[in-house]
Amino acid sequence: MYKCDLCKDRIKKGQEPACVVACKERLGEKAVFTFGLREQIYDMTLKRAKNEGLYIYGDRQNGGTSTLYLSKIPFERINNALKAHNERFQMPLKVENKIESTFNPIGKVALLSGALSMVGAIVGAIKSKKNP
Ligand code: SF4
């Protein structure tokens, strides 16, 4: 099993990921993989989606990912098909950004109250040790 590491060794050398190169070599101008700076990729994706009537996946999920997908088919339909075939890989439209949700105002209050409870528990434990 091999997990994609975005070809970090190639990128360090200033090369594109191997799959992007292979895609370009095989499909030429019809290549479907593109690699670049995040801002440029987001700009290009938004323009193509608007001009070609495509759907985007990855721009909102998990707070905006580093990999964007474009499709003529709505991703809700794609995800329903993946679910129907019991695929492990799915593309749900709503993917919460755990870091943002943890550190939003409510998350901060929850985090703070948790931290205060811990301090309270530690103080309680120290007190009970001194006064058994
Ligand atoms: S070739 Fe593509 S899929 Fe494979 S590790 Fe590199 S970037 Fe990831």
Describe the structure.
There is one protein chain. The protein is mostly helical and 132 residues long. It has three domains: 1-35, no CATH class; 36-95, no CATH class; 97-132. It has helices at residues 8-12, 18-27, 38-52, 75-84, 98-102, 105-130; strands at 55-57, 69-71. It has a two-stranded antiparallel sheet. Iron/sulfur cluster (SF4) binds at residues 4-7, 17-19.
User: What is the global morphology?
Assistant: elongated
Estimate what percentage of residues fall within beta strands: under 5%
Largest beta sheet, briefly? Answer: 2 strands, antiparallel
Strands in their spatial order, largest beta sheet: 1-2
How would you name the oligomeric state of the polypeptide chains in this document?
single chain
Total helical elements: 6
Low-confidence stretches: none
Properties at a glance:
132 residues; two-stranded antiparallel sheet; binds iron/sulfur cluster; mainly alpha
In short:
The protein is mainly α and 132 residues long. Helix content is 54%, strand content 5%. The model has no long low-confidence stretch (mean pLDDT 86).
